[in-house]
Amino acid sequence: MSNENIPVLEMQNVEKHFGGVHAIDNFSLKLEKGQIHGLIGPNGAGKTTIFNNITGIYAPDSGKILLNGQDITGSKPYKVAQLGIGRTFQNIRLFSNLSVLDNVVIASNLDASYNLPQAFFKTRKYKEREKFLAEKAIDLLDVVGLADKVNEKASSLPYGHQRKLEIARAMALDPKLLLLDEPAAGMNEEESLDLVNFVHQIRERFDITILMIEHHMDVVTGLCDFCTVLNFGKTIATGTPAEVKSNPEVIKAYLGGAD
Hints:
This protein is of the alpha/beta class. The strands form two sheets. It has a six-stranded mixed sheet with strand order 6-7-8-3-9-10, with helices on both faces. The protein has a four-stranded antiparallel sheet with strand order 2-1-4-5, with helices on one face.
């Protein structure tokens, strides 16, 4: 099988239990290169637990998770990041007292090629690598429209800009797969529309594959090629946004009834 036919992400019959609760129940997914795929469903449906299993925060109780055909099931979070998965969180997790630039540089340091003594003595290799990482961070901030704010504290940014900074940070290790956890949370209609355009630009510019959790159906419709709908850890529907929105089970479980 050629690499072109291997899904970027494949989850095979993944299960995760917390006591007697099936947070993920026999979940499977194939995500092809360049797709934007949405995970939707009510609170408690298991969406963030899926992200946590992919990124190594939790290890599945059963099943497999493959990244470009490589088994990453139960891998440590730092290893998953190094292999090519970037992530944002529902609740923004920035170093609020550090500068915009430093937030991205710190994320890049997982890829730093110098060792501790070289950093301590600030050797030539250390200085060259730090210069490279800073330039790369500035390039990413330029892409997300924050190049003029590199010296501002992260906490001083408007909410929408903080979301963009978090995405820039997730992109710092050149991921093949980007996981976005409710990127439009807390945004108004105008900010949500801006986010849709921004994520499309990210996908096109970096030729990246995206898996996202989102409750805003206008964002899902504007962004996602396909969706998987969850309820109580189980998949109840898959298809395009239009298909899942008209699915009777989805309407009953998530969209609030026939109205």
